[in-house]
Amino acid sequence: MIFVCVGSREYQFDRLLEKMDELVRENKLDEEVFAQIGQSDYMPKHYRHVRYMSPDNFHQKQIDADLIISHGGTGALVNALKLGKRVIAVPRLAKYKEHIDDHQIQVCSMLEKQQYLNVVYEMGDLYDTIKQVKNQKTVKIYFRQGNILSLIDEYISKTQNLL
Question: What domains does the chain contain, in order, with CATH numbers?
Fold first, then answer.
């Protein structure tokens, strides 16, 4: 199963949900897709979804998933990585009104540089990235307790100092 999660904040992530619907409709994915869609306006037509889930149900979906496609929120990403899951992160972008800024790009790119996950910045790359990730084993399992936030803060500080 592919588990798509977009968080529960007040921002939509229609761009990701629409692309997944297109891939399912075109029979490009050979497994079940299930999504947690949060505040998104787009309602998937070709795969099962719920708006919100309890923390226990969310965690169980992460356990059951073969692949997790997630927004760039640290909570969802770190929990998936601690479970040893293959993860594709899709950062929310301010230009699409998916968030107030592009901080998720920094989070995702840092985790990608450390080879924990793959990142998709443009929806046109999603299908190829899914194929690539399904053919690779998990590169690294995230196991550090509470270290991710300090790594992200350090990375953001370094990149802001370069501006």
Answer: 2-161 (3.40.50.2000)
How many CB atoms are closer than 10 A to CB 76? 22
CA dist 1 → 5, 29, 98 (Å): 13, 10, 25
Q: DSSP code of 122?
A: S
Cα–Cα distance, 89 to 114 (Å, whole number): 13
The structure tokens listed for 96 are 């699409």
CA angle 79, 50, 109 (to 5 degrees): 35
pLDDT in tens, 13-72: 899 999 999 999 999 999 999 999 999 999 999 999 999 999 999 999 999 999 999 999
Q: What is the pLDDT of residues 62-90, one digit of tens each?
A: 999 999 999 998 888 999 999 999 999 99
Prediction pTM value: 0.85
Q: What is the sign of the dihedral through the CA atoms of 84, 85, 88 and 92?
A: negative
What is the phi/psi pair of residue 44, to 5°?
-55, 140
Residue for token pair 């994915």: 29
d(Cα 48, Cα 20) in Å, to the nearest integer?
11
